[in-house]
TrEMBL record:
<protein>
    <submittedName>
        <fullName>FHA domain-containing protein</fullName>
    </submittedName>
</protein>
<dbReference type="InterPro" id="IPR008984">
    <property type="entry name" value="SMAD_FHA_dom_sf"/>
</dbReference>
Length: 248
């Protein structure tokens, strides 16, 4: 059973039908500039002759950086900028993301290898200790308008662009208008302020000190929502919900 799928950087001949290399648990794949010494040659002058090695480890994978000078960055495209840095010479760095992008700096270019780890192990069954149910870390109601506002804020980064600029308040209102005809700048801003309090990014009005508004409120909300999976790609369906499905 294959546990890791590696998609090399595209070439001009391979834009539409990109090769996929599959690794079973325990298998290794080396990559670098040398076509003779690597399983995956990357023909770029800025890539080391022996650049790195990917090893499948069952439900996750590890990356070795075999270069002498370049730090590699492994991005989580679904994680609002979440990433792991693998320093030159670092061996067997564990990568926890289900979908990852290894970014190789190469003489002014940034080359990306995509790595999928579709097989993950999860605890099964509902058996557990008796007693009171653990309180949820974050309580969100996916039928409420504030959640639709949060989904609209997260949408650009959930669509696969981890560093995309966040939509403005006016753009969020326009995005929500098909399902919420009365959406306005004021209403969207109210929901953003409400989310900041609900998700404990700032205190409620009864206890808040007077002073400037929270800087980077939208960025903080999106970062929190994506890091803790409060909004997933499947949740974007609320943006196309028929009128009346999403409530205040």
């Amino acid at each position: 059973m294959y546990s890791i799928i590696v998609v090399p950087p595209p070439t001009t001949e391979d834009e539409r039908n990109r090769t996929q290399l599959r690794l079973a648990p325990g298998e290794r794949l080396t990559f670098g500039r040398s076509a003779h010494d690597n399983d995956l040659p990357i023909t770029h002058d800025g890539v080391s002759r022996r650049a790195g090695e990917i090893t499948a480890q069952g439900a996750f994978w590890i990356l070795s950086n075999l270069s002498r000078e370049q730090t590699y960055v492994v991005e989580n495209p679904e994680g609002a900028g979440e990433h792991v840095k693998v320093a030159p010479g670092r061996l067997d760095a564990p990568i926890p993301f289900e979908f990852s992008r290894i970014v190789l700096p190469a003489a002014g270019d940034l080359l990306a290898l995509e790595v999928w780890a579709p097989r993950h192990d999860y605890l099964s069954g509902s058996g557990g200790l008796d007693g009171a149910t653990t309180a949820p870390a974050f309580s969100v109601d996916r039928t409420k308008r504030y959640f639709a506002v949060l989904a609209a804020l997260c949408e650009p980064r959930l669509r696969g662009t981890p560093h995309a600029p966040l939509p403005t308040v006016d753009q969020v209102a326009e995005r929500l208008r098909p399902s919420w005809p009365a959406a306005s700048r004021t209403a969207v801003q109210w929901n953003i302020d409400y989310l900041a309090v609900k998700l404990r990014l700032k205190p409620g009005p009864e206890s808040a000190d007077t002073g400037p508004r929270l800087n980077g409120k939208k960025e903080s909300l999106v970062s929190l929502a994506l890091r803790f999976d409060l909004v997933r790609e499947d949740d974007l369906v609320v943006l196309a919900a028929p009128s009346g499905r999403v409530t205040r």
